[in-house]
Amino acid sequence: MLSFFASFVLEMAIVQKIMRWDMTVLRESLLYQTILQEGFVKGEQQGENNYLKLASIDFSLSVSQIYPRIIS
Question: Is the model's pTM score more than 0.70?
Fold first, then answer.
């Protein structure tokens, strides 16, 4: 957000250099690392949930193909 406003009074190249430096410092902070780790955990959980949903759909389709009269 600040970089947006800074671009009104500074050259974009200078703003980009500042932002790169800020991002480097931010990535090394404990808060950033904690937030990043939480994001990885949530992503893994969502991936596992999506896999289980797809596996159950695939299984139900397989069963209905094998036993179409029982399911109908």
Answer: no
Residue 41 near residue 35 (C-beta atoms within 8 A):
no
Domain span at 42: 2-71
Task: Answer for the pair 27, 20: CB distance below 8 angstroms, yes or no.
Answer: no
Q: 2-9 vs 12-27: helix axis angle to the nearest 10?
A: 150
Q: Rounded to an integer, what distance in angstroms lies between the CA atom of residue 6 and that of residue 63?
A: 61
pLDDT digit string (tens) for 12-22?
A: 888 888 887 77
Please count the structural domains in the chain: 1
- Nearest Cα to Cα of residue 18 among 35, 4, 39: 4
